[in-house]
Amino acid sequence: MKKNLLLAISLALVLAVVGLAGCSPGNTVLGEIEQLNISSQQEGIWVTGQGKVTAVPDITTLRLGIEAQEASVAEAQTQAAEAMDNVMTALTENGVAKKDIQTQYFNIRQVTKWDRVKEEETVVGYRVTNMVTAKIRDIDKVGSIIDAVAEAGGDLTRINSIGFSVDDPSDYYEEARQKAMVDAKAKGEQLAELAGVTLGKPTYISEGISYPISPRDVVYEEAVAAPATETSISPGEMEISLSLQVAYAILK
Fold it and tell me: Could you give the CA distance from residue 225 to residue 247 in angstroms, rounded to a whole number?
């Protein structure tokens, strides 16, 4: 009898606590807030507007440098240092500012080959690589600068990539932003019409920018003496794009 009585009392206490928790003002407010947040996130018409403009690049970035290989580290490093000095001189003498030249990669490593007789890797030399990026602000001189660098560095010259960009893209982004907003509103109005509702004001706007800089492969992987005619480089046009995610209220 005592066990049954204790069990009944314990069960009653548990039910009372659960009932009080369910009726407490704090739990009721929390439930309303959670429901309000979920419903507010789901309300409205969400669209993504795209804005694109074309621009003519005014900056060229070259990734170039020197690679030398000799039997010893000292010999390879001496050759690389002399050739790199010549390349740096060619850049500055052709109008590239020192502030626009930055070292990107420097490496000294062993060069090995498989010895079939000994059945092991043997060191056959050492390779020194020194790469920089050079920002050229006069695009008309890119071809002549490439030729000058190739001549200065000789067979040790390496030009790995070329990229084009706009120094100050602010005006282009403003135009792209306007186009993206017009596109977003047109999409929102179409969706509102299809749904049989009236489009309200924007309640949320988020911007995403696509950066258009993309390096391209160029010649002179194994450089030789400068050609008789200047290397032709065409910057063409580049596309600057911007997207806006917009949420519109629904007027019922």
Answer: 60
